[in-house]
Design goal:
With 166 residues, the chain is of the alpha+beta class. The protein is built from four helices and six strands, in the order H-H-H-H-E-E-E-E-E-E. It has one domain: SH3 type barrels, CATH 2.30.30.40. The protein has a six-stranded antiparallel sheet.
Length: 166
């Protein structure tokens, strides 16, 4: 298998705005150097999901919170959930296209993981870029046969909806 691509290799000129916001977080780690939860990850969970603040821990799964943050900050309605499975019915179904939201089974456990489609490795494997991948915002490889859903945002946030500053 090829090496995981760096940030520049993931850039696409026609990518949707949530994808571009996601790439701005490339390399962000879930933990700080002293081992605490990264304040940005905490803010994603607190501001873009219904996850209770008193239950947020440094081992809390945050892929869906990152997805919700990027989509909402781009001005679209997200699943606004800490559950990756919430993205299975989010928006509308779509074909493979850069920036589509992809739901896959969680590696090494039950449940789901949500990532953004960033391109193909080959006919059977795609590059997913998202949060909580390799303990940060990084690309990873996923088999296409395991994909549970491919989705695309369809609703803009209302003008009165609160948005987190970029």
């Amino acid at each position: 298998m090829t090496d995981v691509p760096g940030r520049l290799a993931l850039e696409h000129p026609d990518a949707p705005p949530w994808y571009k916001l996601a790439l701005a977080d490339y390399g962000m780690r879930e933990l700080t150097k002293d081992g605490g939860l990264n304040p940005r990850v905490h803010a994603m969970l607190l501001n873009h999901t219904h996850f209770p603040d008193d239950l947020i821990r440094k081992d809390t799964a945050w892929c869906a919170a990152a997805m919700s943050s990027w989509i909402e900050r781009a001005g679209f309605k997200s699943a606004h959930s800490a559950s990756a499975a919430a993205y299975e019915k989010f928006g509308e179904a779509c074909d493979w296209k850069i920036g589509c939201v992809v739901v896959v089974p969680r590696t090494g456990g039950s449940g789901r993981h949500v990532t953004l489609y960033a391109g193909d490795v080959d006919a059977h494997t795609f590059i997913g870029y998202g949060g909580n991948q390799r303990n940060g915002c990084f690309p990873s490889f996923y088999p296409k046969l395991k994909v549970v859903a491919r989705r695309w945002p369809k609703e803009l946030l209302s003008a009165s909806a609160s948005r987190t500053p970029r």
